[in-house]
Amino acid sequence: MIERVELRRVRLPLVHRFQTSSHAKRELEHILVTLIDTDGATGWGEIASPSGPFYCAETVESCWAVARDHLAPMILKAAWEHPSELPVVRGNYFARAGFDMAAWDLWARVRGVPLATALGGERVKVEAGVSLGIEPTIDDLLEQVGLRVAEGYRRVKLKIAPGWDVEPVTAVRERYPDLLLHVDANGAYPSGEMSVFGELDQRGLSMIEQPYAPRDLLAHAALQDRITTPICLDESIEEVGDLATALHLGAARIVNLKVSRMGGLTSALQAHDLAVRHGIPLWCGGMHEFGVGRAANVALSSLPGFTLPSDVSGSAKYYARDVTTEPIVCHGGLVDVPTKPGLGFDVDLDFVTAHTTRAQNFS
Ligand code: OSB
Ligand code: MG
């Protein structure tokens, strides 16, 4: 049983401004969730919602309200033996993910096993890629790509949007003919837009991520029929049922699984198993998580179905200093899967406290 829940809104500046098709950000505010059980054991989770409702419907404010008014009170009353038995609400995936992750961390710590082992992970290192935002100029983009390739990252993903697509992608491809490269539109193209994707189909990309709006699965299936580059879904997949529908329709040949977007590790695990049964390659996407959420992403990426590099870059790609006492590091494009119990990282409470904008405890 959980005896105490702590919620902290923590704000950290990004080392490099990040622009997607819908918005730009310089700093992030995520909510750290701490669960403390009746024996005093502790688990940490992270609610990594964007501040505004542009990637998905949730916001930091909506997550804070749902966590405060529903998830925290519900978990204090709940009897659960395993994280898969936590009480649930509809939707509100990011908010739920913070609690699910904290429950998994607690569960694994109490048993003295690394989270990756608890989830069924097999890898000791995971392959890392980077996600690069829209830059003011193509030269700026080439500089960012050069920096990350020099650091050893195994794959580069470029954000695209109408007006920033064929030209920058062609420039990067010409400079790096053998780079594992893909694009992510975050659903910015009108349903049925084919010509841009016909061009991008000639650039040797490993995938095109989320070209159309999240619910427009039929448009994704029609595009996949017309191009050979695999389509990868991100925003479209919030529940395991969404994945089943997408695969049935032929709307994706690759899937980006995100712990945050799917309401936590429990649901991501189910989606993993379904994708493996369908022979669909997976990778783990990110939301610029702080060290807590990223440690969960690293653990998930150690599962056998994650056969493509994940967005689990080292802390240094995002933050000058992370919320964990040790940063997550990437060497030669690989991130070690932690071997310590639970998430395998400790939270730097002094640093977190110094960057907390609002906190509330429940018991
Ligand atoms: O679509 O994958 C996305 C960041 C914020 C919102 C959406 C996305 C992203 C990223 C960053 O691509 C991935 C990372 O955490 O490195
Ligand atoms: Mg994406």
Automatic annotation (TrEMBL):
Domain of life: Bacteria
GO biological process terms on file: menaquinone biosynthetic process
Pfam families: MR_MLE_C, MR_MLE_N
Mandelate racemase/muconate lactonizing enzyme C-terminal domain boundaries: 138-230
GO MF annotation, one: metal ion binding
UniProt keyword annotation of Kinase present: no
E.C. number(s) listed in UniProt: 4.2.1.113
InterPro entries reported for this sequence: Enolase-like_C_sf, Enolase-like_N, Enolase_C-like, Mandelate_racemase_C, Mandelate_racemase_N_dom, OSBS/NAAAR
Keyword Transmembrane helix: no
Keywords of this entry: Lyase, Magnesium, Metal-binding
Protein name, entry field: o-succinylbenzoate synthase
